[in-house]
Amino acid sequence: MIGRLFEVVCGRDPPVRNAPSKEEATTDGDREMANAQSGATTQEGVRNGMIHVRVLRAIGLPTMDYGKRQDPFVLVQLEGSDPMQWASTDPAFQGGQTPEWTEQDNNELEVFYDATQQNKHAILTVEVYADELGEDLIGTGQVNVTDIVENQTKTPKDVTVRLKDGLSGSANRGEVSLQIWYGPAIRKAFRAAQRASKLLDARDSFVATVYAIIAGGCGSVCKYFQLPSDFVKKHRKISMALAACLGIVAAGAAAIFLMIAVPTAVVAALTLPFWIIPFLVTSFFTAPVWIPIVVVIALFFGFISTFFLGLGVTSRPVRRKGSLWTTKLKHSDVGKRVVYEKEA
Predict the structure, then answer these.
(1) Is 158 inside a domain boundary?
(2) Number of domain units in the chain
(3) Do the Cβ atoms of 90 and 74 come closer than 8 Å?
(4) What pLDDT sits at residue 299?
(5) Average confidence (pLDDT) over 267-294
(6) Confidence (pTM)
(7) What string of H, E and C letters represents the secondary structure of the chain?
(8) Is the CB of residue 36 less than 8 Å from the CB of residue 17?
(9) What is the pLDDT of residues 232-261, one digit of tens each?
(10) What domain range is 162 assigned to?
């Protein structure tokens, strides 16, 4: 899961080749290059665009861990894309074996279709994970959307994807109901913003994995302390509330730290020869010793606060709300004209 995220965010779009226009192209090679520049394939006449996937529900999902709550989420990726184009829903809270996803769960996904890369086929791989950590894969399946892309179908088409324990597996792992259609491409500037957002997803997945490892180690130790463990299980809501409060406080402190310390460090580095060194030297010889100590401590706590504030602002819950508002904005009349490219 993490490897895929880092592969996506670290990858680069293929370089754009300069080519003559269709009117000036005289050879087959020139025509192909001109079509690539305009976002269309020579064989199919399909322009670059966005494959829209609305995740509705899943049925018959197996329970991966009977000792844990199952909050499934769906990940969709376009096979053959480079870098890999993918998107995922939010977890369906307490979805269990029959989860449903709504607009509040960011269930409308978009993956960029590059007509110059995909040649003739467009295949989506659908994966369902048991929880937000993405450790337990419930099942995976594929759906061929070539007809939707070639016909540039704008009306949502109902599709059911049967899940297996692997692309070559045979075990039945339930099924997912989707609606799929094709639309104009998002402008390059907004695609770059999407990649930046997925870098934060990679960070969160890495943190979640580290947390899972630490939690697993603590779990093996906590078995010797049965009383706290029983209290957590018995008072789950209280434990979750305390954990959420601590997380918010930590994230806010980190964000404040980054907000203050980073600009301070930049200014300090640029002006170091002009005032910082003379100030410290003067303070050392003339001022009480506590003044430079207070300055250093203040800078330190400012740096820490900015760090936690940055984590809070870029935390997953905040990004989910931002994604929900962004989706609503993109689907407005103004958003469609600003975010998406004009149709031919």
Answers:
(1) yes
(2) 1
(3) no
(4) 80
(5) 70
(6) 0.56
(7) CHHHHHHHHHCCCCCCCCCCCCCCCCCHHHHHHHHHHHCECCCCCCECEEEEEEEEEEECCCCCCCCCCCCCEEEEEECCCCCCEEEECCCCCCCCCCCECCHHHCCEEEEEECHHHHCCCCEEEEEEECCCCCCCEEEEEEEECHHHHHCCCCCCEEEEEEEECCCCCCCEEEEEEEEEEEEECECHHHHHHHHHHHHHHHHHHHHHHHHHHHHHHHHHHHCCCHHHHHHHHHCHHHHHHHHHHHHHHHHHHHHHHHHHHHHHHHHHHHCHHHHHHHHHHHHHHHCCCHHHHHHHHHHHHHHHHHHHHHHHHCCHHHHHHHHHHHHHHHCCHHHHHHHECCCC
(8) yes
(9) 666 677 777 777 787 788 777 878 887 887
(10) 2-193
Tokens 């999407």 sit on residue: 194
Those residues whose C-beta lies under 8 Å from the C-beta of residue 152, and which sit 6 or more positions away, are: 46, 47, 49, 182
* Mean pLDDT rounded to a whole number for the chain: 74
Q: pLDDT band at 5, cuts 50/70/90?
A: very low
Tell me, yes or no, whether 300 lies in a domain: no
Percent of the chain with pLDDT over 70: 60
Q: What is d(CA 328, CA 120) in angstroms, rounded to the nearest whole number?
A: 32
CB 93 within 8 A of CB 19: no
User: Does 226 fall in a domain?
Assistant: no
Phi, psi of 59 (to 5 degrees): -135, 150
Q: Residue 45 — pLDDT band, cuts 50, 70, 90?
A: low
Distance CA 115, CA 113 (A): 6
At 111-126, the pLDDT tens digits run: 888 888 766 688 999 9
Of the two residues 76 and 314, the one the predictor is more confident about is 76
Kindly state whether residue 91 falls inside one of the protein's structural domains.
Answer: yes
Is the per-residue pLDDT at 285 higher than 50? yes
Domain CATH number, residue 130 = 2.60.40.150
Please name which of 127, 7, 155, 115 lies closest in space to residue 58, comparing C-alpha atoms: 127
